[in-house]
User: Fold this.
Amino acid sequence: MEANSVGYWKATLGLLTKIMIIWFLVSYGAGILFQPVLDTIKIGGYPLGFWFAQQGSIYIFIALIFYYAKKMGEIDRKFDVHED
Amino acid sequence: MELQTLTYLVVGASFALYIGIAIWARAGSTSEFYVAGGGVHPITNGMATAADWMSAASFISMAGLIANMGYGGSLFLMGWTGGYVILAMWLAPYLRKFGKFTVPQFIGDRYYSKSASTVAVICLLTASITYVIGQMTGVGVAFSRFLGVSNETGIYLGMAIVFAYAVFGGMKGITYTQVAQYVVLIAAYTIPAIFISLNLTGNVLPQLGLGGSLVGTDATLLERLNQIVVDLGFAEYTTSLPGSRLNMFVYTVSLMIGTAGLPHVIIRFFTVPKVSDARYSAGWALVFIAILYTTAPAVAAMAKYNLHQTVNTAVATGGDLHAPESSLVYDERPAWMQRWEKTGLLKWEDKNGDGRIQYYNDATKNAEAAGKAEQAGWKGNELTVNADIMVMANPEIALLPNWVIALVAAGGVAAALSTAAGLLLAISSAVSHDLIKNVIKPDISEKGELMAGKLSMVGAIVLAGYLGLNPPGFAAGTVALAFGIAASSLFPAIMMGIFSKKMNKEGAMAGMLSGLFVTLFYVFAHKGLFFIKGTEFVDLIGGPNSFFGITPEAFGAIGALVNFAVAYVVDKVTKEPPEHIQHLVESVRIPRGSKAVDGAH
Assistant:
C-alpha cells in the first residue's frame, strides 16, 4: 500500500507537470513572451500571438482540464484509489 | 415602446424570474441545494459556478478595459481563465477530499491552529472587501444608467438593493436561480455582440468577427482599428503593452493564482459529491465562462471601433480623420451620449470652441499624430469616456434595437448583484462563524451568530459603498487588486498545505502575514491607506511602479513569492508538524474515502 501511494503521487505529479508545461507555453509563451515573433504570422485577420492571448489560450485551457480529469480517472483506477 | 419603460420591464421580469425559481426550488427541497448538490448535473453546476464567478468586473468592466488597453488587456482574459487550470488540478480535488466547508476551516485544521485560521480570516476579509468595492463601482455604473441618475445616486441605490438581496439571501446557493442568472447574463452579453459582429464584419460569431474583414472592404477590423487609433495618437491596438511585457507577465500570474485563492470560488468545489466531480466541474465552469471570455475581446475591439466611428465620420469613409467636418457636431450627437452624460461617466468639453467633438490622445508620444492634431487646430481631447461604460453603452453605440439595450441592463444588474451577494455571504460567514464562533466567543447562541453575520454584512456594504464612491480604479482594476491580495496571502498557504507534508503552522502564518503585508504596502502606497484618497505614500517607495515597473494590480504575484520564501525559511527553523497532520496530508492526496462535507452552516 505504501509503495502504491508513492507511485500514485508520482504518477499524479507527472501528469500535472506535463499539463503545466503546455499551460505555460500557450499563455505565457505564445500569448506574452513570443507574441512579437508570432504576430508576424497571420491566421485569418488575427496576428497569431494576439490570437493566442485573446482566444487560443482559453480554448486550450478548457481542453487541458478535461484531459486532466480523464487521465486522473485512469490513474485513480490503475492504483486502485478510485471512489466507486 | 420607450427605452426607459422597456428597461424597467426587462430588468423587472428578470428579477421576477429569479424570485420565482427561488420559491419553486424551495418548495421542492432545500438542504440538498446547499450541501452535496445530490441530483445536480456537473453541467448545471458548471453554469451556476460561472454565474457566481462572472461579476460586474467580467460583465461590465472587462471589455471596456480591453478596449482601452488593446493587446495588454489580454492579461484579464488569460489570467481569469488560466487560473481555473490551477484550481482544477492543484486545489479543487484535494480540498474536496479534505471535506471542510470554508477556507479558514481548512487552514485551521491543516495547520492545527486557531491562530492560523484567524490569520486566514483576516486575509479573506481583506480580499473580499476589496472585491466588493469593485462590485459597487460596477453596480454604480449599471444602476445610474438603468435609472437615469448620477453615478453617486446609482451607488447608494445599489447599496440598498444589494443589501436587501443578500439578506433575503436564500437566492444565493440555490443552483437553479444561478443557472437562470447565467442564462440572462450570457444572452445579454452575446446577443448584442452577435448583432455588432454581423453589422461590422458579416460574421455571426464574434470570435471569428474579431479576426474578420470589415463589410465591403478588404481591410480587416484589427488592421483598420490599428490605423485609426495610431492616427489619433493612441497606442497600436494589437501590440500595446500595459507598461511593460514583464508587468503583463507578472499581472497575469497574479490573476491566475488569485483565482485559485479566492474563497468564494473555491467553496463551489467543496460541494460536489465526489473528488472526480470536482475535477470535471472546474472544466464545465470554464466552458461557460469561456463563452463570455472569448466574446469579450470582440466586444472590446468592436465597441472601440464603433465609438470612434460615431464621433468621427471619416472612420467609416476612410477619409481624413483630422478634417474639420469629420468631427461630430456636439448638438447632433446621438441619444445614447446624452443618456450617458446624465450619469457623469461621459463628458464633453469644447476646448477649441468649434462645437464639434474631438476625441484623440492629446498626451501622445507619436510626433506625427501630435503634429496632425495641432495642424487641425485641436486644443486637447474633448471627450472623456469612462471605460466601465463601454459594455453597457455598446448596444446603444451600435444603434441596436431597444430590447437589446434593455437586456444588457438586466444582465449587468444580474452580474453585479449575484457576485456582490455571494461575497457578502462569504464575509458574514467568515466573521460570524470562523472568527466569532470558533475563536472569540465559542458559546455564542445561534441567534447571536446570525446577528453578527448580518451586522458584518451591513458593515461591509457601507464600507465598500463609501470606497466605491471614490474607487481606487475601474471595476475590473479594483477586482484585480482583490485577486492580488488573495494570491499573495491565501493561495500559497493552501498550496503548501496540500503539496508539502512538512509545512508547519509557524511557516504558514508567517508566510500569509508577510505576503499580505508586502502586497498591501505596495498597493496602499499607490492607492492610499485602506484606499482612502489623499493618503498615498508613493514617494516613500520611490515613485509609482518603482518595483521593476510592476503596477500595484500585478503585485500579488510578488507578494506570493515573498509568502513562499518566508514560509520556507520559518518552517526550516521551527519544529515539524505533528505526525497525524502529515498522515492527514497523505490521505488528502488520495480520492478514495471522500465523504460528504461537514462543518457546513
Q: What stands out?
A: Residues 2-78 of chain A form one domain.
